[in-house]
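PROTEIN DESIGN WORKSHEET
SECTION A - STRUCTURE
LENGTH: 475
TOKENS:
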């Protein structure tokens, strides 16, 4: 591992941030390789962080950053109870219910910002932090909309800060090894990819409830709504978990899980910028409010360098690939699928890459396990020479990803963050085109011009590439 690069002892935190930004961020550019990561830390001036969203996944995001020696100086959550609970772990951190106020007040006291809020506030928070030259760790999916993903990607490049999206599977050795195997040609030219998920595990396929309930004491409902259109509070409907199915706030099953489950094949095959997406099975957006309870999507990718055209099939809500795909998987997994179909077993998840020489199957949500099929064909297979870095930190995948991020900020890890916003922005853009197809109706092939961020043949979906923001919450 490279030696830490440090600024001169007399440097202030402001100087450190400016020097980091001038050097530029560590970018991972798919098969084009890795550039040297940057970010410097004064030996006498430890890194500090402000955490936005500290309940649920945000709680562990905050704790993991703190466990790596970063001082937590700010905590933000719209829920006073959640904030008080996390404040017991970090009693010296100042507490806020509005991230805009936190970032304005703490200013130069912060080096790192974590964003672990519902999808619809990711972009507003992350962009404000990056423009203040803060290094940003943001949960997946990177953004609520395609235009937001493009904006975060471009702003990260302009500001030069270190960035990382929270799809921790990217930091797993198993995922990186699977990518190397596919790129080495072990299964030949990949023509079809099938990915399915056990999501949603929250309500979808319903309209907005009537009426409203009193806003609980200690809940900053205005800050929770953030950039989205204001609506009445309803107990248990949106806050604190069920927001994922509502189109104003979440990105549905596709947005929730595809940045995990498609990560390995996207990385291995450069599955960027589909030329068309079709919602093959699609009950449609319900009353303009929620994503359907289940869907099946078909993404079409053209030739990409040495890669042949490829079709990517996505399934959620219990939908599965047909028997021609499932029958080629290990018998033990086929039994799990059969139990799912009969209603006697839990829903499964999986990723299948079908090539001209065989199949690569991952039963792991993070792509960290790879099984070559049929097994007898690959008995003597030797894994290719390593081309992607491995993270020299022994912990859970989630903690390893935080180590990758913090060590890159410190300048101690030269390969840099692999799920940086250049990579994560492209991944998120690609995935969210699928949600446009769900708005178009079942069977409608939506052509996609990624450069222009618009559909040339289904004009109606283009208004959902971005959104209008409430006053004070603009990007």
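SECTION B - SEQUENCE
RESIDUE ASSIGNMENT:
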């Amino acid at each position: 591992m490279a030696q830490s690069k440090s600024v001169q002892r007399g440097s202030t935190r402001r100087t450190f941030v400016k020097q980091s930004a001038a050097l530029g961020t560590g970018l991972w550019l798919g098969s084009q390789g890795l550039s040297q990561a940057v970010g410097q830390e004064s030996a006498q001036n430890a890194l500090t962080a402000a955490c936005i969203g500290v309940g649920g996944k945000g709680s562990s995001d905050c704790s993991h950053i703190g466990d790596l020696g970063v001082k937590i100086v700010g905590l933000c959550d719209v829920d006073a109870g959640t904030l008080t609970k996390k404040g017991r772990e970090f009693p010296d951190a100042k507490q806020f219910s509005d991230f805009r106020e936190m970032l304005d007040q703490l200013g130069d006291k912060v080096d790192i910002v974590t964003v672990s809020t519902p999808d619809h506030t990711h972009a507003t928070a992350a962009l404000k932090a990056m423009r203040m030259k803060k290094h940003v760790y943001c949960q997946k999916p990177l953004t609520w909309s395609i235009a937001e993903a493009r904006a975060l990607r471009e702003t990260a490049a302009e500001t030069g800060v270190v960035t990382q999206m929270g799809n921790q599977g990217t930091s797993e050795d198993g995922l990186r090894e699977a990518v190397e195997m596919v790129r080495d040609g072990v299964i030949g030219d990949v023509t079809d990819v099938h990915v399915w998920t056990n999501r949603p595990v929250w309500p979808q396929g319903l309209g907005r409830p009537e009426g409203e309930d009193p806003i609980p004491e200690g809940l900053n409902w205005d800050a929770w709504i953030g950039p989205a259109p204001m609506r009445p509070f309803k107990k248990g409907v949106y806050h604190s978990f069920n927001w994922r199915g509502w189109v104003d706030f979440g990105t549905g099953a596709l947005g929730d899980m595809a940045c995990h489950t498609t990560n390995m094949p996207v990385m291995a095959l450069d599955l960027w910028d589909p030329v068309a997406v079709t919602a093959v099975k699609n009950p449609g957006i319900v009353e303009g409010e929620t994503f359907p309870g289940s869907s099946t999507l078909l993404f079409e990718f053209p030739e990409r360098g040495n890669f042949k055209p490829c079709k990517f099939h996505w399934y959620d809500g219990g939908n599965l690939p047909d028997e021609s795909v499932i029958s080629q998987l290990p018998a033990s997994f086929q039994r799990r699928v059969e139990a799912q179909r009969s209603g006697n077993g839990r829903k499964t998840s999986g990723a299948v890459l079908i090539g001209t020489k065989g199949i690569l199957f991952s039963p792991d949500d993070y792509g960290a396990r790879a099984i070559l099929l049929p097994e007898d064909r690959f008995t003597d297979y030797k894994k290719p020479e390593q081309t992607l870095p491995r993270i020299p930190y022994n912990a859970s995948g989630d903690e390893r990803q935080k180590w990758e991020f913090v060590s890159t900020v410190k300048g101690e890890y030269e390969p840099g963050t692999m799920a940086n916003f250049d990579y994560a922005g492209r991944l998120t853009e690609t995935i969210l085109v699928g949600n446009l197809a769900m708005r178009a109706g079942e069977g409608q092939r939506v052509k996609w011009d990624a450069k222009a961020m618009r559909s040339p043949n289904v004009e109606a979906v283009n208004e959902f590439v971005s959104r209008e923001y409430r006053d004070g919450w603009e990007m």
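SECTION C - NOTES
The domain at 173-205+239-388+431-464 is CATH 3.30.360 (Dihydrodipicolinate Reductase; domain 2).
Residues 188 and 357 are 5 Å apart (CA to CA).
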